[in-house]
Amino acid sequence: MLNTLPLKGMNDYFPDDQRKTDYILEKISAAAHSFAYEKYDAPVLEPVELFSAKSSVELVNEQSYNFTDKGGRHLILRPEMTPSMARMMARVIKEKPKPLRWYSFPNCYRYERPQKGRLREFRQINFDLVGTNSIYADAEMISLLRSVFSNFGASENTYSIRFNDRRLINSLLGAHGFNAEQSILFFSTVDKKGKMPDADYNEYIREKHDGQAEFVLKYLQADSISAISELAGTNANAEFSQAADKCREFISAVNRLGINNLVFSPSTVRGLDYYTGIVFEIFAESAGPARALCGGGRYDNLLGLFSGENLSGTGFGMGVYILGLFLEENGLLPDFSEKTASEKSAFCFFTEPGLASLTAAAAAQMRLNGWAVEFEPEAGKIPKMLGKAQKKGYKFCLLLGPDEEKKQCIVLKNLENGENREIKVTQVH
Amino acid sequence: MLNTLPLKGMNDYFPDDQRKTDYILEKISAAAHSFAYEKYDAPVLEPVELFSAKSSVELVNEQSYNFTDKGGRHLILRPEMTPSMARMMARVIKEKPKPLRWYSFPNCYRYERPQKGRLREFRQINFDLVGTNSIYADAEMISLLRSVFSNFGASENTYSIRFNDRRLINSLLGAHGFNAEQSILFFSTVDKKGKMPDADYNEYIREKHDGQAEFVLKYLQADSISAISELAGTNANAEFSQAADKCREFISAVNRLGINNLVFSPSTVRGLDYYTGIVFEIFAESAGPARALCGGGRYDNLLGLFSGENLSGTGFGMGVYILGLFLEENGLLPDFSEKTASEKSAFCFFTEPGLASLTAAAAAQMRLNGWAVEFEPEAGKIPKMLGKAQKKGYKFCLLLGPDEEKKQCIVLKNLENGENREIKVTQVH
C-alpha cells in the first residue's frame, strides 16, 4: 500500500482548508482591487542564477530545492517571488506608464526543517509598487496593509506596524565611524533582538562589538526619530538629516490616513538584501506568539541585474499560512469545517431508479435558473435523503418520486419550515 | 546582464495574461459551484512512487521533472493531478458521505519538447465525482462540461462530445478472440486514428493486425452503439449486452438534458491507464485545428493503491491553455490587453508636491466608500494626468490642486462628460 500522506513539510488542501485559503486570498484581492494593483504570475521553476545573483548563498544552496534537468540546466523551485517579479518587470518596464502596481499569490519552496509556521511549500502574498521613489508610495504600502487587516476585522491594537530606514541607519553608522564590515555585523546583531534572552543578548553585544557596544545598546533603546537624531548628535551629516526628514514625512503621511499603530523600531532591519530605504514589518501584538506577519521595504536597484535602468520600488511579502494563524488566534476566521450552502442551493434526489433521468433534467433546469444543485446519482428513501441534505448544511431539497413523475414536476422543499413548492419540469435547451 | 526570459516551455503571466486565466477559471468555478463541486489542492512535489504506480513509465521517466532532494527522497513535479487526488481521497473517503465532488486548478509539469498547445508548466482543470458507479454520474460530467462551454458562449456546433466505453470494447474484443496482448495493440492502433494520413493508417492496420485487420477497419467505421452491436453479432456475451444497455441509457440521459452534440466515437479510447468504463473527449469542431480540448472517463479502482476499498469514480482534465486557444479561435474571449476600469474606479492625482498628504487621505476616504483608487504618488500637471488616466481606461479622475486644498475637498471628474463634483475630505478613521 502506498503512503497517503503528502511530503514532510507540505500540506494537502482539503475543501475545508481550501475554503480558508480562498477566503483569505479573496479579502487580499479586494484590497488589491481597491488600490488598483494587477495580478501576475511566473513559473515555479527558474534558472538558479536568477536567485544566486541577489539572494543569500545560504538560501540558494542550503535552503532551496534545486536540481539539474535532463537538458543540463541548473534549476530552482523559487524560494521567493521577488527575483521573478524583477525579471518580468525588466521585460516590460520600458513600454508601460510608471509606476507599476503588481501583486501575486505564488507558491514558494524552501528545504528547511519543517516547524509551526514554516512549511516547505508555502503560499505567499506579494505586492510591489515600482517606478517611483515618492515617500507616498511607502505610505501606500502601509495604507494597503491597513486595508487588508481591516478587511479581516483586525483592529489596530491586534498588530503594530514597525518601521525603520536603511538609509537613516547607514548614515548614522557612517557618522559614528562604522566601516563596511562593522556595519554588516551591526545589522546582524540588531536583527537578533528578541531571538535570545535579554541578558544573553546584552552579553553577545558586548562580546561582538568591542568599543561600539555602548552605541549599539543605546541605539536599541532609540524608539523614535528624535531619539535616533539625538544619538547621531553633532556627527549627523546631510544625508542623515535628509533621511530623518523623509521619515518624519512618512510618519505624518501615515498618521494622516488615520493609522495610529505605526512605530519606529530600531531592531526592524529586514536582513541585508535588496532594501535601501524604509523597511517595515507587521507585528502580531495580541493573541498568539509575538511574530512578524509580513515584511517589506524600499529597494533602489532591483532591475539593475537585467537592464541599465535604475528603478526604485517598494513592496512586501506575507505568508498565507502565518496570516491564517494570526487570524485564527484572534478569532477572525469563520468556521470552514462545513461548507455553508448559499441561499439558492439545493440537494436533489429521487426515490426510485427509474426516475433518475427526469430528476437530472430537473436539476439542469434549476441550475439554468441560477440554483446550485447537488444531484444524488442513486435512488434513496426520503427520510434518509433529507437527513443527508441536512447534514450537508442545505436549506433546500429538490425531490422527485412517482407522484411527481406523473405530474412531470419536482418538489422544492424548504427544510427549515417544511414548505413544499412544485416546479414543472420542462425540456432543457 | 541576466536573461529576462522565463525557462523554455514556460510562460510568464503578465497582468493581461493573468486576467485571461482568471476569466477562464472564474467561469469554470461558476460551473463548479452550480454543480456543488468543492475545490482542493495538493503539493506540486510528490514522491515519484505515487506516479510510477499508475502512470506510464514513459511519462514518469522521460517526460517529467524528477530529482533527488537533500534528504535522499526521489521527488517528482506532478505531471498530472489524478494520483494526488486519489491519495487525498484515500485519506478522507471513510469519514465522508459519498459521492465526493472535487475540483482543482493545479499547475502540472512535463519535460517535453515545447510546441503550440504543449508547455512544460501548464495549468490544468480537474473535476472528479467519486463514490458512485451510477451512469448518471457519467452523464453529470457531460452536463457539467456543457455548462462550462455555455458559460463561455460556445454553442453546440463549435465542439462535439465524443464517447466510448472501455467495458463495451473489452467485451467486444473478448468475443472476437483478442488476447490481452492483441487488445493492448488494438487500443494503441485505434488511438492513432487521425494522427497520420488515412492511406498510411490503413496500411499500418493491415501490417500490425494480420488476420484481425478487417475487424479493426470495420470497428473504426462503427459510429453508433447499434453498429458496434452488429459488429459483435452473435458472439456478444452478457457483459457486452449490459455495457451496450448502459451506453444507451447514458445517451438517453444526456439527450434528456438538451445536449445534442454527443457522438459515439470508436477511436476515443483515452490511453490505457485508469479507465474502465465510459470515456469521453470534448473535440473542437469549428475554427482552429481539430483537437481534443478535454478528456476523461470512469475509473474503478483508483484508490486501490492506498486502501482495500474499491471505489468507482469518473472525472476529467482540461488544459487552461488549450481551452484558451479554442475560445480565442472562436472569438469567445473579451479583450484583455487593457484592464477595463470598473464603474466605481478613479485615477487620483495632485498638482503640487505639498498636496500629496491631503490627496492620499482623500484617496483612502474614497476607498472606504467603495471606490477603487489608483493614486499617483508624484505631482503632475492636469492635462498630462488626465491623459494618463484616459490611456489607462479610467472614466473618473480624482484631482486636488491649491483651490481644493483651501476648501479641503477633492474633485471627482467624469472624463466622459466633463462633469465635476466636489467631495469634502474628512479625517479618515
Structural account:
- The structure is a homodimer of 429-residue chains.
- Chain A is an alpha+beta fold.
- Chain A has two domains: 15-329, Bira Bifunctional Protein, Domain 2 (BirA Bifunctional Protein, domain 2); 345-424, 3-Layer(aba) Sandwich (Rossmann fold).
- In chain A, 39% of the residues lie in helices and 21% in strands.
- Chain A is built from 15 helices and 17 strands.
- Chain A has helices at 15-34, 49-52, 57-62, 82-92, 135-151, 166-175, 180-191, 198-209, 213-221, 225-232, 238-256, 320-329, 356-368, 382-391, 402-407; strands at 38-39, 45-47, 66-68, 74-77, 100-104, 107-109, 121-130, 159-165, 262-264, 275-284, 292-299, 313-319, 345-350, 372-375, 396-400, 409-414, 420-424.
- In chain A, strands 1, 5, 6, 7, 8, 9, 10, 11 and 12 form a nine-stranded mixed sheet that branches.
- The radius of gyration of chain A is 28 Å and the shape is elongated.
- The two termini of chain A are 47 Å apart.
- The mean pLDDT of chain A is 92.
- Chains A and B meet through helix 1, strand 1, strand 2, helix 4 and helix 5 of A and helix 1, strand 1, strand 2, helix 4 and helix 5 of B.
The CATH topology of the largest domain in chain A corresponds to BirA Bifunctional Protein, domain 2
Envelope shape of chain A:
elongated
The end-to-end span of chain A amounts to 47 Å
Estimated helix fraction of chain A = 25-40%
Contiguous uncertain segments of 5+ residues of chain A: none
Beta content of chain A = 15-25%
Number of domains in the coordinates of chain A?
2
Q: Which structural category fits the helices and strands of chain A?
A: alpha+beta
Major sheet description of chain A: 9 strands, mixed
The CATH class label of the largest domain in chain A is Alpha Beta
Number of helices of chain A: 15
